[in-house]
Specification:
The chain is mostly beta strands. Helices cover 12% and strands 40% of the residues. It has 5 helices and 19 strands.
């Protein structure tokens, strides 16, 4: 971990030095403001929330960005911004979100606040430590009927993970130096359990009852982790957390939402003392983490063609974090309403959502942003941009890896004991029984078609391999292309398509991903 921190510190220092040199004129003179086409007053960006995500399904609802530009003297910067979204995804998840951001309510202090409620009835859960958690593509689906055509179907890799969250962040700059401080306080309530989906049929074929994984379905990976002690009982249902963060930033970008040049570095600590949950001392999950983000933008052809780079690290430096908080990726300024990883839309595009869960992550994003046309329409300023991109990253600090190994060994020892207690491991036994039937009827392959190499040669057929595969994690890659429809510089509708690239284990990280949303990811 020390090597990672030193490497990122060097990268941050180098970027600051380069950015300071590139933007030296920032502190020497003020550019004359171009008042042509300046926006003033109130500006709305209402949209139907219609889209598709390979991780969440079809998206429908409503959202809007609201900007106040005042007399236009700050344009393209806004005086304040608000965002509201109410929407639902076809795979069973619902979003209620509000956000407010301003630099001018309190002189010298930027204030950001958000209140969000995410009902995630079918939330992806692929286990811990990437490749160490076996991924079977044939089991990664939500179906109305199970393989026998009678019992209701679910997915091995889903669980319930609802989130209610209140976030605040305060930032201030030291003069006109580009350096500044940041601090914030968040409250988050996680509610976890077995997956539920109103769209699934009960045993009589009706739709009135919510079906969970214990009613005739193949047990989920979440239930296996819980039964085998990889997830402690004290964390199984979620918890309440009060999280504090503090750090500094350096920012010389010419514009926050669509920069053409400049440097942005964020370095901050965030942590949570486990004081809101009634847990035994040994079950408490207090933690302290470090986050580092380095962003650099190079104008290749004025502001029409820009090369953007982002390198990041987030990891634990003290304590232990609960399993349900690992996916939360922190940032000072929100680009997405809920940034999670490692994997998919916000970090490694093209990979499966939250496929890689660990104590620490390192990742990087490279984009070429080409603004190929600009025009005015309905009294608004528009631009269309393409952004071919390449992402890579991986887990640099494992999470409960030894617990996964111990769980596999304990189960194998129990299975090989001729006089074992048959009442133990009910979920794991049921998982094995249904795996046997799925393999027999061809629904699941016995052996992996990718490069996984296990001693017994039968990867997907044995339940113990889902507790711990024995395979080390590797670097994960994705590449793709995006189209962005941008209004008044700040409102950005994003269409991105990405292909997962894994030369080591084909299909283990996902295949492809598509997302319709807002903003560039950095």
């Amino acid at each position: 971990m020390k090597k990672i921190i030193l490497m990122l510190a060097f990268l941050a220092t180098a970027s600051i030095a380069f950015g300071a040199d590139m933007d030296a004129s920032r502190n020497k003179e003020k550019k004359q403001k171009d008042t042509t086409g300046v926006k003033t007053g109130l500006n709305f960006g209402p949209l139907p929330a219609i889209g598709y995500s390979t991780d969440l399904g079809w998206h429908y609802g409503a959202l809007t960005d609201i900007y106040w530009y005042g007399d236009g003297s700050k344009y393209p910067e806004y005086i304040w911004k608000a965002n509201v979204e109410v929407s639902r995804y076809s795979k069973g998840n619902t979003v209620f979100h509000t956000f407010f951001d301003t630099k001018y309510l309190v002189p010298g202090v930027r204030i950001s606040a958000a209140v969000s409620y995410f009902l995630n009835n079918t939330y992806n859960f692929y286990g811990f430590n990437g490749n160490a958690s076996l991924y079977s593509p044939k089991l990664d689906k939500i179906v109305k009927l199970n393989y026998d055509g009678k019992t209701p179907g679910m997915g091995t890799y889903i669980m319930k993970r609802d989130i209610f969250r209140v976030m605040t962040c305060f930032q201030g700059e030291f003069g006109n130096s580009g350096f500044g401080w940041a601090a914030g306080l968040n409250y988050t309530w996680f509610r976890c359990g077995d997956a539920r989906n109103r769209g699934l049929m009960d045993e009589t074929g009706g739709r009135k009852n919510r079906i969970d994984v214990w009613e005739g379905n193949i047990p989920s990976l979440y239930s296996l982790y819980l039964e085998n002690g990889i997830i402690p009982q004290a964390e199984a249902a979620g918890g309440h957390h009060l999280e504090l963060k503090a750090g500094f930033f350096y920012d010389t970008r010419d514009h926050e939402n669509m920069p053409s040049k400049g440097t942005n570095v964020e370095v901050y600590f965030f942590g949570s003392p486990d004081i809101l949950n009634k847990r035994a001392k040994e079950d408490r999950t207090s933690y302290l983490k470090l986050a580092v983000h380095v962003k650099q933008f190079f104008p290749l052809v004025s502001d029409k063609l820009v090369l953007g780079m982002h390198a990041a690290y987030q990891g634990i430096i003290a304590g232990k974090a609960p399993f349900y908080s690992l996916q939360s990726i922190q940032s000072l300024n929100m680009k997405q309403i809920n940034t999670e990883g490692l994997g998919s839309t916000c970090t490694l595009r093209g990979t499966t959502s939250n496929r890689f869960m660990g104590n620490g992550y390192a990742w990087a994003n490279l984009e070429l942003r080409w603004k190929f046309v600009t025009f005015d329409w309905i009294n608004q300023h528009w631009a269309l941009a393409l952004n071919p991109f390449f992402d890579l990253g991986g887990i640099v600090q494992p999470y409960r890896l030894q617990a996964m190994k111990n769980a596999r060994d304990s189960y194998v020892d129990w299975k090989n004991d001729a006089g074992h207690d048959a009442s133990l491991y009910p979920a794991t036994q049921r998982f094995q029984q249904q795996l046997d039937e799925l393999v027999a009827n061809g629904s699941v392959e016995k052996k992996a078609k990718n490069s996984f190499k296990l001693e017994d040669g039968s990867v997907y057929a044995n339940a113990e391999n889902y507790l711990y595969s024995g395979v080390k994690d590797n670097i994960h890659l994705g590449a793709g292309m995006g189209l962005h429809v941008i209004m008044n510089t700040n409102f950005n509708i994003s269409f991105e398509f990405a292909k997962c690239i894994n030369p080591f284990f084909k299909g283990n990280d996902g295949v492809w991903g598509m997302n319709v949303g807002l903003n560039y990811i950095f």
